[in-house]
Design a protein that fits this description.
Length: about 350
């Protein structure tokens, strides 16, 4: 029987279809991740970590689980993304949210809005990567059908004030200033306790508020202060670290449970490595951005430890009163969390001395 030969042009045309069919057969699962962070490998610590995660997962599953990253808010707002993940992961399987957005799905996350919660990055990283916080975040499964994968630093974590009135060197310098905050009642309570007025505004209205005098100042991580050119509308900046901005990473629990066990393990272990990778980059970017702030703002100032502690003694009780009485958080849980943060900080400091100074 003669062999049937296709014309060369038809054979070449059929090749991409055959390759696509082969790839479709090789790939059984898809994981789409949405974030507000831009798709940039150098101006933030989250997107590079997600790229590393994608490479690890696809390698560890032999391409059976394909990861897609949608940055820059392509798929909607944080809350919209969270709602899609919560809906069973049918259209979106994973997302990274700010603390405020996370609190709308898991109310207990407001705990980490506590003022002056951490003294340094290593204490913060050890806490967020520790067993206590992992157990605490396991509550997202029941509360929102979300599985917690880890916590990124949001813009470097520690925040700095910028304002157009005066350099903030002591708590008294905040008296009478009108500070824009996120639409988060915890931040409002903190600012009011320190003598400032608080004007909660969405991000999109911030620059206009500073330009028009609706607000005298604001606070954000140094990387955001330089990226969004706050030096053009404010003159002074002070690194206080009174708030530590975090960005929890979650995946749909319903979707996760449909995966083979080896794929689940690939996601979890790859996420943990990606989180670790992001920590160092986050600190480096924050440090570089603070140096840039000192070049661009008229005056810059790093608040010393003793003044930070004095501010903490004022702000912490006001925040605790708000979260227990107004937000109705269990006071025992608040105290447990604060105790764990202190324990982790002491442990990190003690390990440094016993391992390297003796």
């Amino acid at each position: 029987m003669p062999t049937l030969r296709l014309p060369k042009s038809l054979a070449l045309a059929a090749l991409p279809l055959a390759m696509a069919a082969t790839q479709a057969q090789a790939q059984s699962y898809e994981m789409a991740i949405a974030t507000q962070i831009p798709e940039n490998m150098s101006n933030n610590a989250i997107y590079p970590a997600l790229v590393h995660f994608k490479n690890l997962v696809e390698t560890r599953t032999d391409g059976d689980l394909e990861v897609s990253i949608f940055g820059g808010g392509q798929l909607g707002s944080e809350v919209e993304n969270g709602s899609e993940v919560q809906a069973g992961g049918r259209t979106l399987q994973s997302t990274i949210m700010s603390s405020g957005a996370m609190s709308s799905f898991y109310g207990d996350y407001q705990l980490v809005t506590a003022p002056f919660l951490f003294s340094n990055w290593r204490q913060a990283w050890a806490f967020f990567d520790g067993a206590w916080f992992a157990d605490f975040m396991a509550g997202t499964v029941e509360a929102a059908d979300m599985r917690y994968l880890g916590t990124f630093d949001d813009g470097g974590g520690f925040v700095a004030f910028t304002n157009n009135k005066r350099l903030i060197e002591t708590v008294e310098d905040l008296d009478g200033l009108n500070i824009r905050t996120e639409e988060n009642p915890a931040h409002v309570a903190i600012m009011q306790s320190l003598g400032a007025s608080a004007t909660p505004l969405p991000w999109g209205e911030l620059i206009t508020a500073l330009e028009t005098g609706l607000a005298d100042g604001q606070f954000n991580a140094p990387v955001l202060n330089t990226t969004f050119n706050f030096d053009a509308v404010t003159d002074y900046t002070t690194l206080t670290g009174h708030v530590y901005n975090s960005a929890p990473w979650v995946v749909s629990e319903s979707w996760f449970q449909e995966l083979p066990e080896d794929h689940q393990h690939a996601i979890v272990t790859s996420a943990r490595e990606a989180i670790t990778l992001s920590h160092g980059m986050s600190g480096a970017l924050a440090t570089a951005s603070w140096q840039e702030s000192c070049e661009r703002f008229e005056e810059c100032y790093i608040m010393p430890t003793d003044e930070r502690e004095r501010m903490a003694e004022i702000a912490r009780p006001a925040w605790k009163e708000w979260i227990v009485n107004d937000y109705e958080m269990d006071e025992a849980l608040v105290d447990e969390m604060l105790g764990e943060v202190e324990r982790v900080g002491d442990e990190v400091a003690e390990q440094d001395i016993t391992r390297y100074a003796q």
